[in-house]
Automatic annotation (TrEMBL):
<keyword id="KW-0560">Oxidoreductase</keyword>
<dbReference type="GO" id="GO:0016491">
    <property type="term" value="F:oxidoreductase activity"/>
</dbReference>
<dbReference type="InterPro" id="IPR036291">
    <property type="entry name" value="NAD(P)-bd_dom_sf"/>
</dbReference>
<comment type="similarity">
    <text>Belongs to the short-chain dehydrogenases/reductases (SDR) family.</text>
</comment>
<dbReference type="Pfam" id="PF00106">
    <property type="entry name" value="adh_short"/>
</dbReference>
<protein>
    <submittedName>
        <fullName>Oxidoreductase</fullName>
    </submittedName>
</protein>
<dbReference type="InterPro" id="IPR002347">
    <property type="entry name" value="SDR_fam"/>
</dbReference>
């Protein structure tokens, strides 16, 4: 499917948007593209205040763009960022869960979760939990069109046998790419479960393609060489990589199946057995809800 953000993103007047990881890569490109279509406000998060200032300066529109400093390895930092949005806006139309890490060294988040699962899934699930009342309130208005877009990857297929190893999520677990696959499987399952539980929200997971960003650039050794060689002729720029999530966030809803996983651009993704496992999705939702029950606004 062809999707040109310059011409295919509709007028976003009155809409409030939040993009995680918006200081670089496809997150930055998404912020810049959305800002050109007159949203009321765009929030974007990241850890680098200098880069954030550069993004705001680069935006060539009168959009109200607000940076939220946020460390996704810290749930208290996520909570603080969400509280700022809630305190300043009574609506949220688009939640783009873009930030993430790939093949990180073995380790734990500040809250004790496997680093990739904690960053890629748990932190974003907390944003969903805390911002859900605002999303649902927005969805009640006549003519509303609320979207939650989760960035995943076809690398979800690298997940461990069994899908998600719940008993080990407070340990570093096994290997970098296996852990990455587990976190990206969680992104697909959680979006699908969000759509089942709250069908008034359009919740999708999207693969951006293999993008020339820091995620690939920060890989090392054999893993980096394998990714580059096997994708030599298919790697895309950050602007191209942003198109699938921009389509999911602003494209025609009648072209979408709520809860589905899409590859670039707007093409139904190739599932594996675990990525379509409704029971596992429900188990992930309940486990996550239990882990986050002490966090509120």
């Amino acid at each position: 499917m062809k999707f040109n953000p310059a011409t295919d993103i509709p007028d976003l007047s009155g809409k409030v948007i939040f993009v995680t990881g918006g200081t670089a890569g496809i997150g930055k490109e998404s912020v810049l593209a959305l800002a050109k279509h007159n949203p009321e406000r765009i929030y974007f998060s990241g850890r680098d205040t200098k880069r954030a200032a550069e993004v705001i300066a680069e935006a060539t529109s009168a959009a109200n763009i607000i940076f939220l400093e946020c460390d996704l390895t810290s749930l208290s930092s996520v909570q603080k960022a969400a509280q700022k949005i809630i305190s300043e806006s009574d609506r949220l139309d688009i939640l783009m869960l873009n930030a993430g890490i790939m093949d990180a060294p073995l380790g734990l988040t500040k809250d004790g979760y496997e680093i990739q699962f904690g960053t890629n899934h748990i932190a974003h699930a907390l944003f969903v939990k805390l911002l859900l009342p605002t999303l649902l309130r927005t969805a009640e208005a006549p003519g509303s069109d609320v979207r939650v877009v989760s960035l995943t990857s076809t690398g979800f297929a690298l997940h461990p046998r069994g899908g998600i190893l719940f008993d080990g999520l407070r340990t570093p677990q096994g290997g970098g790419l296996v852990n990455y696959g587990q976190s990206k499987l969680a992104n697909i399952l959680y979006a699908a479960e969000l759509a089942r539980r709250y069908p008034q929200i359009t919740a999708l997971s999207v693969h951006p393609g293999v993008v020339r960003t820091g995620l690939v650039g920060n890989l090392t050794g054999l893993t980096k060489a394998l990714v580059q060689v096997t994708n030599m002729f298919t790697m895309v720029t950050p602007a191209e990589g942003a198109r699938n999530q921009l389509w999911a966030a602003t494209g025609k809803k009648e072209k979408m199946v709520n809860g589905e996983f899409y590859e670039p651009v707007g093409a139904p993704g190739k599932h594996a057995r675990k990525s379509k496992d409704v029971k596992l999705a429900g188990q992930l939702w309940e486990w996550t809800d239990k882990e986050l029950e002490s966090y509120g606004v």
